[in-house]
Amino acid sequence: MDLSEDLLAGPNMDKVIKGRLEPQLLKELLDLGVEIQERLTEIDTDSKLSVMSELAERWRHALDAGELDYLINILSKKTGYCEKMIKMDLDYVITVLDPDSISISLEQSLPGGIESLDAFIEIESGEMYKCMPAGPVLILGSGNSVIPCFISGILSLMTNNFTLIRPSSANSEAVFALFKMLKEMALEETPIAEIARELSNASLIFCASDESETLKYLLEEAPLGVVNFWGDKITISKITKAISMNSHHPRCCFLAPMTGYAVIHHGVNLEEAAHALAEAIVYYDQQLCSSPTEASFIGGFDAAKEFADELGRALEELTKDFPIEKSEYEANLVQRARNKLRMSGSYVIVPLDGGPAWTVAVSNRQSNLDRVFPSIKEFKLEVRRRFIEIIAVESERDVIERLKSLKEKEPFSSIMGIQSVGLAVPDTVFEVITPILTEAGVHRIVPIRDMHLRSPIEPFDGKHMAREFINILYVRKE
Known about the structure:
By secondary structure, this protein is α/β, with parallel strands linked by helices. 46% of the residues lie in helices and 18% in strands. It contains 18 helices and 16 strands. Helix 15 links the parallel strand 12 (359-364) and strand 13.
């Protein structure tokens, strides 16, 4: 693959673009895209799923054969993730492409279920739904993980949309690699090549800066149906402002910056809970919206310190398999934060070598990070990789009150809410805390051990992604 590549179109679209994506061509491309959408609606969903299944197998083979090792090396350097973590991310692409997972997601997301993509489905007597593409869809990638971009892209294609993808600069090579595989399938003489060709023609992958004329036209003028973006508050505001100028009024499907939270109860197996939390901290270096960046321990301060000791041991071991590099600037910030937290009464645990790889701080009844943050304002959430403060609290109600106020606290000013709450609590506590967690406006309540994993039936921050990519055609007969 040519690593300088910044544009990838399907076989038919290549003839129009001729190797360059100019703003003046975009209107013509989008008009063709609407025609492609019409053709996609004529192809049954099972046939598209067969293409996804074959694409997943080819991706798996390429990973196993070492053909994507160059990607692992490149993405590790660009994102700062260790190579083992990048391999995990690329492995998960197979799950995103899995036809069973896609089918379950579509069945749970769409009114009328997955069959409503192919036919009118009777919802009530004489009343029917059919799901039609809402596109063209523009997907703007962000962040280090390639998974969000692939989830949006695959669901958009499976709901019959012409799909434009501007990947994150951190992982664009992976996006190009997958869709190049799809294009190669489209050019073969195989039974599914014709379907692969339509899906490849329905996808346009391009690189463009935030200030480019291409992106400016797409957001402010292009006849788009949906714009999808996962990212930070500032960028969401900029995109919203640009879209507000678009006379076609595309639907906005934004997933705002959020974070995860862990809750541990003294009545569970502390060693198991500590290992689970250590994995949640190490995987993706707490950069996912589901990653726990603070925890509450329901129990006494001494019990919380005992748990933190277990967590430190687990982090020490995991860091051997998932090493992390931090700049001198980051290391100095970490050390300043540790010192200030100790002076504020927190129990602070660090690696055996005293290095900056990870930090666990235990505070009693209230957050000491909140108190000291004005003197270390550079220690923002995105910098606090493999850092967690555990607050020892007395009750489930204390947890809820903390969650309600978290996004208003200065150390968490970059988030818009709590996405995931990971629990390690006894069953009796689970029955008590789950109903009241709804007061805090969280979107997911899951075990700590798999906070980073997503079930196919799960909504995304409270909404079904596939539903954002369709319009519902309603029919009533006499």
